[in-house]
Specification:
By secondary structure, the chain is mostly helical. It has a single domain, classed as Leucine-rich Repeat Variant (Alpha Horseshoe), CATH 1.25.10. 80% of the residues lie in helices and 0% in strands. It contains nine helices and no strands. Helix 4 runs parallel beside helix 7. The termini are far apart. It comes from Aegilops tauschii subsp. strangulata. One of its GO terms (biological process) is intracellular signal transduction. GO terms for molecular function: protein serine/threonine kinase activator activity. Belongs to the Mo25 family.
């Protein structure tokens, strides 16, 4: 039902600015795969369907949003971590989010997180290759 609402920019903006939006950051990490997967898909739609709405939201809630987003980027759940990196690249590479992207990539704390994620990816690739 929420994904249907997200199709409309006005409702997407309302959801982004509501206190309920914070719940997505919790739902994507739930141990129940079905719920977490559905939350991830809804989260993705919310962040990628309406570029202008998301850009305005991110500009005015930059610190809050990326503090919460950092938690899912560093989640212990591999699927959550991997999907959150994918979504991050999708919504930051939107032309309307270019200022947000520039601000994000200039912050050392976020660079450190990305380097850490790359290290984990390299280790996983190495372990997979050694098993073959």
């Amino acid at each position: 039902m929420v994904r249907e609402c997200i199709k409309h920019p006005t409702l997407a903006k309302y959801i982004l600015e509501s206190n309920s939006f914070e719940l997505f950051f919790e739902y994507v990490e739930l141990p129940n795969f079905d719920i977490a997967s559905d939350a991830l898909n809804t989260f993705k739609d919310l962040l990628t369907k309406h570029e202008t709405v998301v850009s305005v939201y991110l500009s005015s809630h930059y610190e809050q949003f990326f503090e919460r987003y950092t938690r899912i980027l560093t989640s212990t759940n591999y699927v959550t971590r991997r999907q959150s990196v994918k979504f991050l690249s999708e919504f930051l590479l939107e032309p309307s989010n270019s200022k947000i992207m520039k601000r994000y990539i200039q912050e050392v704390r976020f660079l450190n997180i990305m380097i850490g994620l790359l290290k984990v990816s390299v280790i996983v690739l190495y372990l997979n290759a050694s098993l073959i």
